[in-house]
Design goal:
Blueprint: E1 21-28, E2 32-33, E3 37-41, E4 47-48, E5 53-56, E6 58-60, E7 69-70, E8 81-88, E9 91-97, H1 99-107, H2 112-122, E10 129-131, E11 139-141, E12 145-146, E13 151-153, E14 170-173, H3 174-177, E15 195-201, E16 214-215, E17 225-227, E18 233-241, H4 243-253, E19 259-273, E20 286-294, E21 300-310, E22 330-335, E23 338-339, H5 348-359, H6 367-370, E24 394-395, E25 398-399, E26 410-413, E27 426-427, E28 433-441, E29 449-464, E30 467-470
Amino acid sequence: MSNQSLPDVLNVQPLPSIQTMNIETNQLDPIVINQGFCRFVLERKGILDVGSTFTFSVHPTDVAGDDEAYLPVKTGIHSLIKRAVLKVGTKVLATSDDYAFYQTMKRAFKTNEEKSQKDLVKVGSTDVLEPSNQGDGKYQMKSLVYSNATTGKIDPSVRLRVSETECPVFSIKLSELFPMMKNVQLPLYLIGENVSVELTFNTQSATQTGIIALFSDGYAGGTGIKVGQDNCKFLADYLTYESERMDATAKLVMSETGLVMPYEDLILTSSNVPAIAPAPVGTNVIAQQTTRDLGLSGRNVRNILLHDHRQVTDSLGGIYTADAYNVPDAYNFRINDKLVYSRDIINEARKQNQLSQVFSTNINCISAEYSDDVLVDKLSPNQPRNQDVVSTNSCQGHQMTTLQGRQHYIGVDLSVSPLNVAGAGMLVGQKPVECLRTIYRTATDNFNRDLRFFTLVERMLTLKNGQVLVSS
């Protein structure tokens, strides 16, 4: 996706002709850092490349946790980041709240090759499946170190260490932190104020688990996790082209209209759904009707993603699982007093299809990871699980069957154009967007749920005479 109205040097796409380009990489230390927050300030030179990268390390606080801790297998080091903010001076350009949840969803659409051959090392994730060693037609986790046919451990190279010098160091790209940076490169040399990135870290105390890291089965020590502050760096790439192109962009910024850059930003709406009381018994199924309002009035909306988490910490996925229901839930959206779908979406295959339109590719996981559709007894009203597709083999002592039905994301694509141009999303009127759902509760599936709606909206940045103006 590209913005055709931007100068070539600011657009994230191949240049139309061969140009001389200089790349200068600076290793920046945070000007402020502690266990909950850090702030980087960029130099006002060149064009900020979207491939610029942050590095991090995290460590068990208890020496007993050395080599026993590992990152959530679907999330990796992204679990460290709670909130990311991109600023120019005091103006906020972009914000990513509950970033780890959003990135867990996005990573599900990467190819298996990228996840296993790149992200294993860079992110510390282990989220690709392969045929089971037992030859039983089931799946097991790939990239583990197996001591026998059924027992696996996270690769030693990405297991967490107490030492802050002999430890794995992971990376997160700037373009992963902020959706806007996938399509726009900022001309830092033309901005009159400092550009900064502020990161708020998740914290995990000695009595918590699954927020930043998890531990092997049977581990009895403290589960606290800390940030390796000396390994927290920003590798900033500054691009410089030949004078003619840099001057042409400068003239546009100094013109009467200035440089106008449409971009995308995230809005988070958090909610919850309580368990019903009295709880269902036996094979009874009780329908729970829910409506959640999203305050998006006056905005152009590209898409909406829903992360629905059962309030239970998973032994492999941590708190970042989006849990499927035994009896499939039904959903619809009402926007501008009109339903998006003529009838509610309940079929699991169609849910996957609607979700794939948001990312323009299919989700890259097996069906049993997305939903319980192939795992349950459909002849019973409450559809209990009666089979497994993922093997009972273990990872760090935890059964791999826990991976089933843990990537049940919901998405609706509202864009009217694939280009990153103003007006490509659906304009929402005065009334809030409504998410209408019917959840079918059973005796074994009646949990409190945390809901996170991530909405991708259009914003506008105007750069004129070195000053930055940002739309709401």
